[in-house]
Amino acid sequence: MTDARANANRWLAAARDDLDSARYLASGGRHAPACFFAQQAAEKAVKAVHYGQGARSVIGHSVRVLVEKLSPRIATLDALTDAARELDLFYVPTRYPNGLDSGTPAEAFSAAQSARAIELAARFADAAGNTLGG
Question: N or C: which end of the chain has fewer CB within 10 A?
Answer without folding.
Answer: N
